[in-house]
Structures are given as structure tokens and as C-alpha cells.
Amino acid sequence: MKIKNILITQPKPVEFEKSPYGELARKFNVSIDFHEFIKIEGIQAKEFRKDRINILDYSAVIFTSRNAVDHFFRICKEMRVEVPDSMKYFSISESTAYYLQKYVQYRKRKVFHSKENSANLLELVKKHKGEKFLLPCSDIHKLDIPKMLEDNKIPYKKAVIYRTLASDLSRIDISHYDMFIFFSPSGIASLKKNFPKFKQNNTVIGAFGPTTAKAVTDAGLHLNISAPSQVAPSMTMAIELYLQNEMKKK
Asked: Same domain, yes or no, for 33 and 84?
């Protein structure tokens, strides 16, 4: 089966032509469309207060995404909480850490970031065990970081400040696509909600991350492409390897 049309369940890159996806499209003569399968909705202050979390009781915040950053400072503004300059910030990646400059003055003494993996994040957190950590997150979130903190007896509190919801995909003709690429379990849930009669048949499915891969198989679907791996640390590299192998079969 020749792959002609690929659906990426994420926003389109700002400069698509210069992105790895643009290179894929040119190299393999495929059409690549982008549709967000999930949307983010902030939890309002009135609802957040029901959890009885006092943000100022915590001296450090752990961020796993830009969404978490945006909604943390939004909820602080709504609740008129003035975040002290002494607050420390720990981020899963360098890009998320730099994104903090949108809200706070970036200082290395209070902003720390890992190399995009939870093990490295744990090492950073362990060096500051005297802090009380707040973990802003969605109602649907990965369990690896909470488990890691609990296993290492790190004092922390989850703060659900936004929801991950299925987007309305009624305008998409999914039968047009030969390949779907997912980046979160929520994306799989959105597929099932929007297209309850979907049958995979010959459609190729790719997943980024072990929890997304598990969601694919848990949904009764066959996983064809998985990333990251030693040979394909990125999703675009994994897609490229798959397309190359398909070409060799001809």
C-alpha cells in the first residue's frame, strides 16, 4: 500500500516548508495535513478553589508543558495570587523553561530544566528536597512524574488547572488518510469519540511515547510506527524509516 496522505494530530508548524515534516513531504511526495485532535480548556478559579490548594504554600513548581505554564499563571491572576520572586521553577525541557520568560524574569538560580526526560528532572528535584512542590497539570495526565515523585518521597501536590477535551472533527474525512500520527492518549480518545465506527483496516498508525503507544493497542488498534527509539528519536525520523522500508518492498 502506497502512503499518499498523512494526518498529524498536532498543530501545523509555523514554517512548514522548513520543518522536518516539509522535508518528508518533498522527499516522499506525500501530502501532510495537520488537525488538532484535542483542545485545552482552563479550569476557572471558582472550581479550582474547591480543591483547597493554596499556591503560596508551595515554594517550587514543576512544569511539564507550556500549557501548564500558561494556565498556572492564569489561575494565579484570576485568584489574585502574587507569585513571590523566591518561587523556583522546574521544567521538563529547556524550551518550556525559556517559555517562562513570558511571565517571570529568567534567572538560572530559580529556573531549572531537565533534558526532556523524567529521570533527569528527578535528579534536579532531589537537589532541592527541602522545597514543597506544586505540579500543575490537566485532568488527563501522564502518571510517570507523579509516581517518580512519590517513589522518591518528594513532597508535592497535583493541581488540576486545565482540561484536555476532544476537538470537534466532524469536518474531517478520515477515510482520505493512509496514516495517522498520535502524540497523546487523549488523541486516541478523540478519534474514538469523533469516529466511533472507525475501522483501521490498512490505515497505518504511529504513536509518540509509550503511553500513547499503549493507548493505541488498548483501543484495539494495530501500532505500525513507534517513537522515540534508538534509531528514530523523533516522530519524523520514525515516519521516514517506515516510508523507506515500504519503498524497498516494491
From this structure: no
